[in-house]
Amino acid sequence: MNFIKKFLQLKKINIFIIMGLLATLSCSGPQVITSGAGAAIAAAEDEKTLGDVFDDTSISIGIKDRVFMYEAILVTKIDVDVEKGKVLLTGILNDQSQRVEVVRLAWKQPGVKEVINEIEIEDSFNIKNYAEDKIIQVQLVGKVLSDKDIKKLKYNFEVQNKVIFILGVTSDEAELERVFDHARSIKGVQDIISYVDIISTDSSDS
Fold it and tell me: Are 132 and 162 contacting, i.e. CB atoms less than 8 angstroms apart?
């Protein structure tokens, strides 16, 4: 019963967060966030190929399926982000053995090249902290999407205990610095940790 109560609270928080994000985007021009076909369009203007997008999506779904089969409730407590086979796990669990098992399951998924484990262990789940983290995430996404000098849908952001984790692939260090600037400008952020791969576009094969 206690979990059901918390889960309903999370659903309410997420609804408010989505509404806030939509309001943010409506103030910054006709931005559209989609999945599936939208991800394919984003791939055309990103360093990721269409194949990369599909591979990463299948890895993420596969990991979540494995976690669900292990213990269904854990799917609501963790986030799985994937960029070119690099997996970022975030969330808060109550049991160290669960944390270890989630990492083990992530490595079992075909196509995984690296697993970054940022899952934390905490005795009691704090709804207030969760809401504050999600508000920071919404603000950062809104700032990035409204910045015309940053490619859309290029980075993944997770926030945990007011620490921003950035995952992605880029060839533009100046653009990445703009993302950092937006993150630093958000009130309450305690740290920014980047797992962004900077790749070279110098393809001079002479």
Answer: yes
